[in-house]
Amino acid sequence: xxxxxAALPDGTYSCDDFLDNDGxxxxxxxxxxxxxxxxxxxxxxxxxxxxxxxxxxxIARSTAVACCYVALxxxxxxxxxxxxxxxPIEFVIPDTTLLAVSAPRPVAGxxxxxxxxxxxxxxxxxxxxxxxxxxxxxxxxNALSLAGWRAHGRxxxxxxxxxxxxxxxxxxxxxxHANNPISTxxxxxxxxxxxxxxxxxxxxxxxxxxxxxxRHRGGLGAIYEIEALADDGAEVFLLGxxxxxxxxxxxxxxxxxxxxxxxxxxxxxxxxxxxSKVTDIKIRRGQKVRLETPGGxxxxxxxxxxxxxxxxxxxxxxxxxxxxRHDYKVxxxxxxxxxxxxxxxxxxxx
Length: 350
Hints:
Blueprint (H helix, E strand, L loop, with lengths): L1 H5 L4 E9 L9 E10 L2 E5 L15 H15 L13 E4 L17 H19 L14 E7 L5 E6 L29 H7 L2 E8 L15 E7 L5 E6 L20 E6 L2 E3 L6 E7 L4 E5 L14 H9 L5 H8 L11 H9 L2
Parallel strand pairs: 3-4
Antiparallel strand pairs: 1-2, 2-3, 5-6, 5-9, 7-8, 8-13, 9-12, 10-11, 10-13
C-alpha cells in the first residue's frame, strides 16, 4: 500500500457527491472527501459531509472505514487483503457527520451511503491518477419490496436488489447489468422470483442510452417491470438512490442516466415524491411497477471513441441513433452503417 501511495503525486484532491435525500426530508445529503497524499501516506478526510440524518442513511465509523478499503482495493488491485494495507492511511470521520453515528441513529439503509463513499474516493483518485481512474458504478442497491397476502392467509414479501452498469475504465467499457462492487449479493433470477411470489416480470431488459458516454463508455443499466398477480395486489417499498444525482464520469467521460421508478395508478403512471424512495404505495392486481436503473459513468472524452464501436453499440440497441449523433458525433446511415464523411465533419465542428 505504501508503494502505491508513494507513486501518486503529493497534494490534496477533493470530490463531493450527494445522496438524493434521507427518505424523510427531501433535502440532498453531501458526501464530501478531501484526499491528501504526502509521501507514502494518505489521509481521507470526510469532515465536510452531511450531519446525521433522521432517515436510515447513516452509517457507523467502522462501516465507513470498511467501504474506504473496498474502494482502495478496486484501485490498488495488487495490495493483499490484510490489516497492514490500512496502516499508512489516516481516517478523519467526525461523529458530527452521518458517516460515524452511534445508537439510536437509524442505519438500515447503510448500503446506499457506502456506495456514495466509494464514489467520492473514485472521484478524488481520478484527479491524482487519471490514467488509473474509473467511472462511477450505478451505485444504488435499489432495495425493492412487493408484499401482500396469499389466498390462504399467509404473508408474502419479495425483497430484492437489482443491477445496473459499472463505470468505464482505462482498459474497457463498464459491465452491463452488473452487481454493485460491495458484496457477493447477486441479482436474483427472474424464474426463481416468479415461481416463489405472485408477480410476473413483463420486462427484464438492458436500458438503452443509460450508460455514461466516454472513450470507454459505462455499462448499461436495466429495466425491471413487475405486474402484481395476487387478488389483493401488492404493497410497494423502495429504498434507492441516484434519482437526482447521476453516476459520474471521469477524464472527460460523461455521467450516466438517473435512476427512475414509476408505478401504475388508476389515473396513469406516477413517480414518488422522494424520487428514489417509496413507502405506503399499493397497486392493484394487474398494475405494474417499473424500475429503470442507472448505467455507469464514462471514461475519457466520448469524441475519442472509435466510430466503429459506436456503430456496434447502436446495432446492438445499447444506444439510440440520436445518442450516437449527440454524444459521440457519429452519424449513421438509414441502414445503420457509418457515414464516415458526415462523422468527420460533425467531430471537426465540436
